[in-house]
Amino acid sequence: MAEKYLSQIYYNPESSASFGGVDSIYRVVKDEGKHQISRNKIRLWLQKQDTCTLHKPVRYRFKRNRVIVGAIDEQWEADLVIMDSISKYNNGFKYILTVIDVLSKYAWAEPIKTKTGENLVKAFDKILIKGRKPETFHSDKGTEFMNRKFQAFLKKHNIRFFTTQNETKASIVERFNRTLKTKMWKYFTAKNTLKHVDILQKLVKSYNHSGHRSIGMRPVDVNEDNESIVWQKLYGEESNKSVRFKFNIGDQVRINKARRTFKKGYLPDWTEEVFTITKRVLRRPPVYKIADFDDEELKGTFYEQELQRVNKSDSDFY
């Protein structure tokens, strides 16, 4: 009886709570006084309604996991900065390979003309020749880093490789990219030029010799003797915080879709397919492993803000 009554309120276009949320429906229920229905019951009922769960607003800005490492050069992040719009002023160089050490924040940058495996190998080899080498190499899902020649080069140097499975980028190198490009464009304005190839290494040196707020010192000054101090500065406070999970193993969820350019805001932002939580991963913030209807586990992990609990019975899938 209560579910039928809620349907009459929710699906009636003339109702003040038509296709609304918990609070708007609760106000109508309370004002009419026909049934005693709590906010929690309304919330559970809405979790069964596809019209609600498919069109629920998506959060795109939320705290994500920090990359935690234990030592200098344990992990490097890499990215390709696109510079093709000003390549004619820079001897045809269309990209800049940027690399950063996660702990020390020390960075490198090398210009390349094309995204071929051969050019990536040459650029990264220039970085390794300078004397440092990572244990692991991390990038987003860009195909250029999956190139056979580049992968063979990493293997030759005993460097493990992994990619980010979700839609977010390798965040630490992305922040360095913003810093580098800000310095670069200020230089362009000051000198009335668009040429960067002759000052790129100077800008990188300037960054490495500047104080970095997150580590409390200059990246160039971080070494094996003081890396424990840097680690404590970066991660010490978070290591004592407790973690609370929003979802339980077995919960049914939808996944939010990655926003596309010019995507219409009124179209569904969530997958029609429903998935199941299979594992809770203790991180800050916590993340989850999920599986599809055939119990096949999806690659990567998902943040709570990327998932939405639904309440579907087995009959709803047929």
Report the uncertain regions. 259-266
Number of separate strands: 10
**CATH class categorisation of the domain at 75-223:** Alpha Beta
Average pLDDT rating = 82
CATH H-level name of the domain at 75-223... which superfamily?
Answer: Ribonuclease H-like superfamily/Ribonuclease H
Q: What is the CATH architecture annotation of the domain at 75-223?
A: 2-Layer Sandwich
Give the termini distance in whole angstroms: 24 Å
Helix percent band: 25-40%
- The coarse overall form would be elongated
> Spatial order of the strands in the main sheet?
3-2-1-4-5
List the total number of helices. Answer: 9
GO molecular function: nucleic acid binding
InterPro entries: Integrase_cat-core, RNaseH-like_sf, RNaseH_sf
Name the features:
nucleic acid binding; 318 residues; alpha+beta; RNaseH-like_sf; five-stranded mixed beta sheet; Nucleotidyltransferase, domain 5; Integrase_cat-core
Protein model, in words:
- The radius of gyration is 25 Å and the shape is elongated.
- Helices cover 29% and strands 16% of the residues.
- α2 crosses α3, α5 (117-129) packs parallel to α6 and α7 crosses α8 (200-208).
- The protein has 9 helices and 10 strands.
- Among the domains are: 1-48, no CATH class; 75-223, Ribonuclease H-like superfamily/Ribonuclease H (Nucleotidyltransferase, domain 5, 2-Layer Sandwich), CATH 3.30.420.
- It has 318 residues and is α+β, with helices and mostly antiparallel strands.
- Residues 259-266 have low confidence and may be disordered.
- One of its GO terms (molecular function) is nucleic acid binding.
- One of its GO terms (biological process) is DNA integration.
- InterPro entries: Integrase_cat-core (IPR001584), RNaseH-like_sf (IPR012337), RNaseH_sf (IPR036397).
- It holds the Pfam family rve.
